[in-house]
Batch of 3 targets.
Target 1
Amino acid sequence: MMDSVKEDVHYRTCPLCEATCGLEIHTVNGEVTHIEGDKQDPFSKGYLCPKGFSLKELHHDKDRIRKPMIRKGAEWFTVSYEEAFKEVRKGLRSVIEMHGRDAVGVYLGNPNVHNLSGMLYLPLFLRALGSRNQYSASTVDQIPKQLAAEFMYGSDFSIPIPDIDRTQYFLVIGANPIVSNGSLMTGPNMRGRLKALQDRGGRLVVVDPVRTATAKLADDHHFIKPGTDGYFLFSILYTLFDEGLTKETHLAQHVNGLSEVKKLANDFPPEKMAAVCGLDAETIRTIARDISSATCASVYGRMGTCTQAFGTVNSWLIDVINYVTGNLDREGGVMFTTPAAGGKMSKKGYRFDRFRSRVSRMPEVLGELPVACLAEEMDTPGEGQIRAFVTVAGNPVLSTPNSKRLQNAMENLDFMVSVDCYINETTRNANVIFPAPTPLERSHYDLSFYQLSVRNISHYSPPVFEKNEGQLDEWEILLKLAALVGEEEPHQDAVNKLDDASIHYLIKKDIKNDRSPIYGRNPKEISEALEGRKGPERMLDYMLRSGPYGDHFKQQDGLSLKKLEENPHGIDLGALKSRIPEVLLTHTGKIELAPELIVDDVTRLKNETNKSDMLLIGRRNLRSNNSWMHNLPVLMKGKDRCTLWLNPTDGERLKIQDGDVAVVESEVGRIEVIVELTNDIMPGVGSIPHGYGHDLSGVKMAVAKDNKGVNTNLLSDEKRRDAVSGTAVLNGIPITVSKTKSGREKHGTVRTESI
């Protein structure tokens, strides 16, 4: 008798980047057979990039960790959860009892913000641990934008989002939304959205040191010297004021600081700034005029503007330009999303500089320390030195500055535990690794990116597959870790108690918040309405029902998790709407257009110039987002993408030909890398993608090791930082480039070292 064949179709949101594309996943008897875009998804409408297809390979990857593992010397052994937690309790508690809680450092990687369990339960673990040494990928890439929002609007997630589907003029600076599908601007099929902008008569203008995929679609592209965006943006402001192009009555009753901004802009006329940033003065003035004269416009900057010496100033200036041209909180300009879950309004003061790092005295920013401080906090002896380390879905050895120093520091830790799916360049140092479920084994809801979306969207994804018997979900692992760093044994009773306490904490906080729809309600009544669910589903159901579209535990037709379960393709909640003054949480209740800490940094901008002949920047490929994606064959197909891009004029000057191997040196490191000559990069600039360098011993990622590439962060200096946010400078690194004696090499490079 033939075995029965069970075919199923599942719908869910892709969690691999910020675009939140809908997936249609076909399975047969527990195996993924096919993945395509969900044509019924109201947001992505069937669009899908190559990363979405890779979920099949990720789920079935033989290198993926499936059970807890303990390392003894260089050997790894599979153990039970009970044994693994026992080892972690012994390791972490001994460090805490001997050296205090700050002796335990934590690093949270980018995938956590694409993970419902991580978003909801990591804060519980961090509170239970009580260490100030908390770090994340945010201070590698986006904190300047969040910090500017915190100072200007009162909340780090009150980031104005381009109303891309209605704008008529879109200025993109240091960003490549066609490849990123929007970064801090969630919107699938950005190519389609930008083409629609042009089809309705709008204009797309890109300012970038690289002729990116977005720049190639643009109506105009202008090269700019890396690290000089602040001068360009200020000269735009100068022109707007100088030529009377501002719309100063727009939201005037809700704004402080406009006169101070005018005064600051006086020092940056285009005629003086042109030589600094590489654009001619008339081009700068034309861009300013076009922004002002468009019926609606939005200015958008991302990685290139954030990960440089003036990342916070740049992020602030972009918002200032959007305001003074009348495009803030306006249809077709930049607007604030109204998320279905999360984003309740409350304020207790700015989350900045409430404490400082031990060695460099860098200020805390939004609850964490800059990751540029991590290595020195590990390898500098003294009270408070990091002696134990916890990583969750992170690979800081590849993603953070001056990687060699961090590699060396991690080898001398007393104890390390990771929650991850691979033995990578970082987790190879762990004593214990807990396996993270694959995206298809856990539920999903994009709490973060629906707060940054170009439309108001809500989409819940149940697991495609049941976990293996005895396998813990990530939220259960995090609650057990929270129990063991406290005084509890990590038994199920402790997990249930913490889970119950977490939902009761949210309810009690909201019924006391006069901005909440459940203000003044009976907490027992609300708790009873949530019975029958636990874990992330209970928390999400509560957040949806108490949110702006929710049933508020009394209306019949409001949003709830049950309603999302009945709508597997997601629900479109409509276009962005004006939210000022509702969204403002500053101490004055107004937009603070001239925050003191940012204004003070303008002096540094005026006095600092980078005179290097060659500057290094990063780049991103559509098939790559995080380093672990390099272990998925479908994403690594095609030619070697870890190359050094140089302009042919630089190649001629340096006597380097296409395909040669070049030595690239910075103040802190040296690598060898294959050169790719292209007119798509401006002269005087080199570009290497991030996330590579898979040549370290002990890494158990076969495909990645075959595509090892080079680690560009061996060249980044952790002492080069944005002075306000502490974000490491990853774009605009001074380098020298020379040809190796060996000349050409077919299969990439292997030698990397620090100086």
Note: Residues 492-511 form the longest helix (20 residues).
Target 2
Amino acid sequence: MTNTEQLSILLVEDDPNLRLILQDFLELMQYKTHTASDGLAGLAVFRNHTIHLCILDVMLPKMDGFALAQEIRKHSPNIPIIFLTAKSQKEDRLMGFQLGCDDYITKPFSTDELHLRIKAVMRRCIKQLQEDEKFQLGKFRFDSKNLLLHSDFGDQKLTRKEAALLKLLCTHKNQVLTRDEALHSIWGDNDYFIGRSMDVFIVKLRKYLREDPDVSITNVHGVGFKLEVKD
């Protein structure tokens, strides 16, 4: 979306009272808001409208929020997603971040907090997508803006978070990228759940780069990671 375009939000929440309160608040904040009360209806709304950000309750009838997010990401791999949930179990938060969600808010929460989270997520997303840089990594050519990793082995389409993490590693090539810097730059926070999620993304990037033995991502114990490229 452009900076002047009205933000269009999909809100999927099965509690009718909370859905109405959030819809009224989002519209008061000048967001164009589409709503649904279950996962299947939410998917239909997503497919029939231009959506820039999704706010999904985890516990939804017909299709839960995690399954809905996976279906949405099949059509739009880089769309920002915020999960809403009354659950606080580690497994749920880990699942959300490993699916690539941009934030995770536990109920009850204030509308002001939600508004701040939306603005922070969109700020990070727009910044990551607008940065137009290309990098040569051994046999790989990385186009960060178009989220593509090119090589003679084939092209790999990256998610927005994969591309943002790889770009950050590229800007620190052959240097240590601390966990704290990566977490704050890409996720805007640093906690146990997001850290575990980042480890999953590191594993994925290693898999994409494994065809070239001169390119590797190594762990720097207790500090962070290093993208090592042999010239």
Note: The chain has a mean pLDDT of 87.
Target 3
Amino acid sequence: MVGLLLLAAAGCLSSPGHDPVTTDPSDFDPVHPPRLVEAVFEVEGASLNAIVYEAQGPGPHPTVVLLHGFPGNERNLDLAQAARRAGFGVVFFHYRGTWGSGGSFSFVHVLEDVATVVDAIARPDFARAHRLDPDRITLVGHSLGGFAALVSAAEIERVDCVASIAGANFGAVAEQLEASPEAAAGFAAGLDAWSGPVRGPGGATLVAEVMAERDRFDTRRHVAALRERSVLLVAADRDEVTPATLHHAPLVDALRVAGARHLREAVLTDADHAFSARRIALARTLTDWLATDCSPGAP
């Protein structure tokens, strides 16, 4: 379990002893206040709707890219606020084909969208405008977003840290679907049932994509790259969507075998897939890790 000690790493917490999970900063900066700013990222002619949570202070601030799940009903914006209070700029966006963003949804498009956004926020003009540090980028994702964060962190060299919260391992899912046509049909039906704000192919097409991309989509196959990153893996003991036994524990074991240098993992008790009863515990787990592993001066 991740420890609960708050460490005020240089450039992260606004003041020593400040708890970003439960309290606002006391030292308000009127010259460089926190702000909420709309943004748009372009990928293959499609516009991705985004929000930048600018942290107060001149910066540059380490940056979190926050990735939602499928379809993204739980956006985890409480985590965005906590991370900002901890001194991180946060970029949140909707993938192609979701929640009003242009284009068509697919799992491969999600990975392409993450790469596009990471590249965009690292550009000097964007980083300066939002007081972001392009050399300290962390990916934080929930469910589908956890999968995207892990695979993207393995594939994008400039990403330093990655956190997966109830993250999916679609490679493990593909193994189950291949063994059971009934399971494949049920998974496709489940995707269709949750696809209200998603525009794109139906569940059957998405299942076919999972099967075709099973090697790339298997988070366990990326441990050689992830072992060099700071990694946080958080699971929920009552999660029936991405149960820890299938999606969390095997990846933890694989990273340990690979000799991961900076791995933290936690299974929060009495928590469902959305961590409905453990939002404070989740926020504290994340901000503690950000402060110690992903701030300026962290290893």
Note: Strands lie at 35-43, 46-54, 61-67, 89-93, 132-142, 159-165, 230-236, 262-268.
